[in-house]
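Following up on my earlier message about magnesium ion. Here are the inputs again, as you asked, copied directly from the submission form:
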Amino acid sequence: MGAPLHGVSASPGIVSGTVHLLRWEVPEVPSRLVSDGEVAGELERLREAVAAAIDRLRVVHARAEANAGPAEAAIFEVQVAMLEDPSLRESIEALIRQNLAAEKAVDLVLLEWRERFGRSTNPLMRERASDLIDVQIRLLTLLLGLPDHDPVDLARGDGVILVTHDLTPSLTVQLDRRAIVGIATDAGTRTSHVAILARSLGLPAVVGLLDATQRVRTGERVILDASNGVLLPKPTAAELSAFADRAQREAEALAVLSAEAVGEAVTTDGHRVALRANVDLPDEAVRAVESGAEGVGLMRTEFLVVGRAAMPTEEEQVEAYRNVLRAFPGQPVVIRTYDVGGDKLPVGGFPHEPNPFLGWRAIRMCLDEPAIFSVQLQALLRVAAEGDVRIMLPLVVSVDEVRQTRFLLEEAAADLARRGVPHRRDVPLGVMVETPAAAIAIDTFAGEVAFLSLGTNDLVQYTLAVDRGNASLVTRFTPLHPAVLRLIARTVEAGASSGVEVSVCGEMASQPLMAFALLGLGVRTLSVAATGIPLVKRLVRGVSLAAATAAAQEALRAATPADVERGLRAALVGELGESTLDGLLGLG
Ligand code: PEP
Ligand code: MG
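Thanks, got it. Here's what our run produced:
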């Protein structure tokens, strides 16, 4: 039996399986010089490594195409083309002829190329810098004789628990979903994007384990108790049997919740709450319908971009948005424009920024790159002709950004009209309230937006100045801080006085105590991952709005997050009883 490792529950569930330790990072390369007589041998080693890397990429390409589709797999063709590029090969060979060992020559040349691509003014060239990293890792792994940690090509059979330092969105979308039964990472928090994707995929995940990659090995059996944020290495027979009992009980409890999830969410005193789904991957829509969602409150379109060789075309986007829309006939589907940048693009995809969360991302990037943004807006206007599509802008700090987008929307509509393509011109345009600037100056948006949606993951991050993805700050990321609650209350009041809907689509909406507080603050529309809908419905049906309102008023007057939490918990115990509440908290 190994000592249990404690992290943060990112996506609930309990599974047992075999570790696949993923180290997808550029290895240390020792400096090594070779004699003139060894140069020919080094050139041959390079040739063999390049050939082996190309062979491997062809296998990976086929696997990714089967798992994720041709567009997602195209990235591997790009990497093959890089390896076949004569100028890359010649630069490496030139260094070998100057007596550098093959691995050192590869390391230096790829570093230089990455820097050059990263500085390019063309965003797609910058995006290619991350492919160069992959090529560098692949070649160095071969030349240094290191174990192959390919993240895409996993053996199926006994469930794989992927253990890694961190997982970029681009790697996550390419993973073989049939092989992996759980994810454990050293880094990350409940609101980091790996956690969000794991919930979308319905994969149990524990993040913020800090040093799990040092404590387990590939092939080792582990239990991942993601509901409690625990990774248990080398379980004993007794632990495995206790695990099987718990897994069965949890599955039964979830099945009961899911069976109850059809129908409306109405509080015990008769107030209706709309529960929509957050859709991160386009093929999730069906699961969202099955879990009882009444429309989509947030479709994160950046997952159409990450890990891809090129930006999705207008047609590809129309198809992706249409698939989601068709799953929800007559119901609203809120599609967010690209929120790339920050932690949402692969490493190297954008120029290195010292402070990416405060940097060139989301609506800023879209407005600066109208060629990219217009394609998305045209796709959205086209799909809007087929149902209740609403467009939502991320990371807005000023109503100027809404006005500029409106201008681009008008241009997009004019362009579609010129091309004779059916579309809807007057699509509702709303914003995410996820910066203190937007929440404090919320009155300035009145009359200019059709709806507001609180993105509490970012709102908490920017209000408390706590990086949402930093595992060592996890206890300081406190959505129940009175400052956050006051910004939410302010936004809800502004929405009510200007007659626009205010929803919450951040993770707060999926956690029982926080969802209760949000109801009490006046929010009537919550959007959560499909897997979280049954639980939130159960919560809403078990509480009265009167109790939630009283608890929220008390929370607004509290001094600390801990005080707020205590008060909410006491009020919820009063509504649900202690054991039901603990049961719900365990499943969230
Ligand atoms: C948020 O910030 O709360 C949100 C919903 O958006 P994302 O998590 O994609 O940044
Ligand atoms: Mg956000």
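One observation from looking it over: The radius of gyration is 25 Å. Hope that helps, and feel free to reply on this thread.
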